Amino acid sequence: MPSTSTRPPGHHSQRAAANGFCVFNNVAIAAAHAKQKHGLHRILIVDWDVHHGQGIQYLFEDDPSVLYFSWHRYEHGRFWPFLRESDADAVGRGQGLGFTVNLPWNQVGMGNADYVAAFLHLLLPLAFEFDPELVLVSAGFDSAIGDPEGQMQATPECFAHLTQLLQVLAGGRVCAVLEGGYHLESLAESVCMTVRTLLGDPAPPLSGPMVPCQSALESIQSACAAQAPHWKSLQLQDVTPVPTSPSTHSPEGRPPPLLPGGLMCKTAASALSSLLDQPCLHPAPPLCPAVALTAPDITLVLPPDVTQQEGSALNEETEAWARPLESLAQDETLTALGKLLYLLDGMLDGQVSSGIVATPPLAAAATLDVAIQRGLSHGAQRPALPPGCCVWPWDSWTGPQISPMTGRTLRSCICPAMHVDGHVPVPQGDGWVGHCVVLNGAFLIWVLEGCWRQCQVGLQQRLGSHSIPACGLWPVNTLPPLPLLPGLRGVSRALRLCMCPGRRILWLNIRGKEAAALSMFQVSTPLPVVTGGFLSCILGLVLPLAYGFQPDLVLVALGPAHGLQGPHAALLTSMLRGPAGGRVLALLEEDSTPQLAGILARVLHGEAPPSLGPYSVASPEDAQALRYLRGQLERQWKMLQCRPQTR
C-alpha cells in the first residue's frame, strides 16, 4: 500500500495541456498503466483534493473501467476551475455514464463529519458495488484544516479514517498520490496520518462533534440522486434531488472565508497550531493485537506481530467477577473469563491494540456482560467523579477492586452483538430475564422478557408504589432503596452496570427478530440475507451510529449462531476499528474459533478483509428495515442523515 510524494501535482493536467500547476496527470497515467500492463478491469480513483480534478474526469469520463470520485469546493460554480461539469449532475458520458461521481461543496468549513458522511452514504456504496481491483487516491490536503485555498475544517486524523475506510476495498491495494496542500504544518500532519494508516496503524479517534451540516447533506443528496439511475446500491434509498442555488444555503454558523493577513486569520492560525500539537497527532509506537484461546490444542495461523496470549487474571479476581453469574461457575468458563479480563486490561492500559477471546457457548452472554462492566469500571476512580457513583448492589458483594486506568479514560463502548440475546444479558432467574443499559448516567433503561405476568406481581410487592411497566426508562435518582433490590435477581444484577455520568453503552443487535429502536442506545435489526443488504446495514446504520457515538471501546460479540460468514464478520470488525481508534475486542464462540479467529486477527492487524463476492442488491425487506430505523433514530444520531432536513 504505497504513498508517493509527487511534485508537481497532476489531477488538473489534460491530454494536450498543462493546467493548475499540473504538468503530467500522475494518477491518470498510473491507472492507464495498471490497465495496460497488469490487465486490470476496475480501478477506483478517489480525489479528495479541494479542487476538482477535471483532468482526470476528462480522461476517463467515457471509460466504464475507471470509477472517478471527486469532492471539491464549488460554491455553485464560483470557485476555480469554474466549470459547469464540476456539478453533481456531470456523471460521465457514453459507456462511462455513471462512472464519474462529483460531490460539489457549496460552502467552506466542511469538517470531519461531512467527509465521513460522504464516504458512508455515497462513495462506499458505489465502491462496493463496483468492486475495484485497485484504489488510487489523488490525495490533496488543501481540503484539510488551515489551508488557505480550501478553508475547510477537517483535521489531520480524518484522512487516516478516510484511508482506512478505503483499505477494505480491492484486497487492500490502495496507493495515495500527493496532490495539493498549501499549509505546511497541516499538510505534514495529514500526510503522516495517511501514511501511518497505509502501514497498518489504527486511525486515532476523530475530534469534534459528528454532525454533518445541511449544505453537505444537500450536496450528498444531489450526488446520490444523479447517480441512482446507474447504481443498484442507491436505488432503494430516498434520493429525491435537492434543488440547490446560492439562495437556499445558509452558513449554519460555519466560519466565513478568512482574509490573508487579517486579525481573524492570525487568530485562526494560532488556534490551528495548538490543534496540530495535540498528542493524538503524535501517537506512540504502534501496538499489536492479541488472541486468547482456552483450548490448548487449537492451532492458528496468525500474522507475525499478533501474539497468542497465555496470561490470565488472578484467580481471586476472576472468581469475584464470576460469583454472581451461574454460567461462569465451571472451570472451563472461569479460564475463559480470566483470559478475557487479562486481555481487556491490556487493551485499556495501552499494552495491546485489540483482541480476540474465545468463550464457551453457554457462557457467551455472561462473558459479554463482564466485558462491558470491566470496560466501563476501568476508569471509575477518576477524581472528578462524585463519591458513590458506581453501583454494585448484588447480595453482599461489593464488586472487585478497580485500579485507575493508566491511559485514556474509557467513557463509552459500543457492542454489536450477533445472537447473544437482544440486550445486555443478565442470567435467568425465577423464569425471566432482565436486561439494561445506561443512558448518560441519568436513566436506567431495562426490559423484562419471558414470564412477565408471572413475575409482575412479585416485583410490585417488593417495589411498593413504584410502577413497573414491561420496559421503559427509570430515572436513576428515583430508584427504590438499594436494600430492596438484592431479592430481585434480574433487577439487582442489572444494576451492575456503572451509572457514572458520561458512561454510555450503545447496544446493536444485528440479528434481531425485527427492526426496532427501544431507545437511541438500543437498536435491533434482522441480519440481512444478501450481500447488498449487509453492506447497506453496515454503511447506512452500524458505522453512522458508531461514528456518531464516538466510543472508546468496541465489543463485537459473535454468539453460537451468529450466522455470519467469515468475510462478513471480518468486514464488520475491520470497519469498526475506525470509530474506537482501533480498540476492538471480539468475543467468539469456541466451536468457530480456529478459522474465524485467524481471519479476525488479520483484519485487526490491519490487513484487508476477504472479498464478499459478487454484489447482490438488498431485498425490499432489508431496505425497509433500514429506512425504518433511520427514520426512528436520525434526529438523535445525525450521522444517519443522508438528506437535508426540510426547511
TrEMBL record:
<dbReference type="InterPro" id="IPR000286">
    <property type="entry name" value="HDACs"/>
</dbReference>
<dbReference type="InterPro" id="IPR023696">
    <property type="entry name" value="Ureohydrolase_dom_sf"/>
</dbReference>
<protein>
    <submittedName>
        <fullName>Polyamine deacetylase HDAC10 isoform X5</fullName>
    </submittedName>
</protein>
<feature type="domain" description="Histone deacetylase">
    <location>
        <begin position="6"/>
        <end position="198"/>
    </location>
</feature>
<feature type="compositionally biased region" description="Low complexity">
    <location>
        <begin position="239"/>
        <end position="250"/>
    </location>
</feature>
<dbReference type="GO" id="GO:0016787">
    <property type="term" value="F:hydrolase activity"/>
</dbReference>
<dbReference type="Pfam" id="PF00850">
    <property type="entry name" value="Hist_deacetyl"/>
</dbReference>
<dbReference type="GO" id="GO:0033558">
    <property type="term" value="F:protein lysine deacetylase activity"/>
</dbReference>
<dbReference type="InterPro" id="IPR023801">
    <property type="entry name" value="His_deacetylse_dom"/>
</dbReference>
<feature type="region of interest" description="Disordered">
    <location>
        <begin position="239"/>
        <end position="259"/>
    </location>
</feature>
<dbReference type="GO" id="GO:0040029">
    <property type="term" value="P:epigenetic regulation of gene expression"/>
</dbReference>
<dbReference type="InterPro" id="IPR037138">
    <property type="entry name" value="His_deacetylse_dom_sf"/>
</dbReference>
<keyword id="KW-0378">Hydrolase</keyword>
